Amino acid sequence: MRRICVYCGSSPGENGLYTQAAEDLADVLVGNGIELVYGGASKGTMGILADAVLERGGAVHGVIPRMLEEKEIAHTGLTQLHVVASMHERKSMMAALSDGFIALPGGFGTLEELIEMLTWGQLRFHDKPSGVLNVLGYFDKLFEFLDHMHKEGFLRAENRAMLLYDDDPAGLILQFERYTAPHIEKWPD
Which of 30, 38, 66, 173 is most enclosed, with most CB atoms within 10 A? Predict the structure, then answer.
């Protein structure tokens, strides 16, 4: 793992443990020599994570669409900031720069980006790990819904298993290092 993309909120959330989780993840990333790729903002959990990685001597690559550069307040102190034309270009560049994808608690954007990377993995557009840092059980309802999708026949077991999770950043990174993308012998009819 050379670089990991982290999806997280432009808000810090209501519980200080979300902020602490971002800082703990920064410790693990920098401690393992892993560079951060993220959405390029200076506020919310995004800014907290980026600042924490930089303060610990790590490298941070931000990718932000021009239309959000002012709204999300682009971080000007990054190792590298890419200003792109669209959200599609943002997500594509973040994926290309990264060896894996982690979601911290966040909103619609965080969830959408995580699900898109899982979908790309399911379709074999990439074989990179995707996971969540399950702070305070934040993603428990998502896991229940994915299990429901599987039970109802809309999600194969090997694809359900693609979403890695842990409440400890070091444990999640260890899972990433051991990850092997599932192999499908035959696509479903």
Answer: 38
In terms of C-beta density within 10 A (0-12 exposed, 13-18 middle, 19 or more buried), how is residue 132 classed? buried
Give the torsion sign (CA, 119, 145, 181, 166): positive
d(CA 100, CA 155): 21
Domain boundaries, the chain: 3-135+164-177
Contacts (Cβ under 8 Å, ≥6 apart) of 183: 158
Encoded tokens for 128: 């990179």
Does the 3-135+164-177 domain belong in CATH 1.10.8.420?
A: no
Torsion angle, CA of 183/118/84/64, rounded to 10 degrees? -140
pLDDT tens digits for 66-97?
998 877 689 999 999 999 999 999 999 999 99
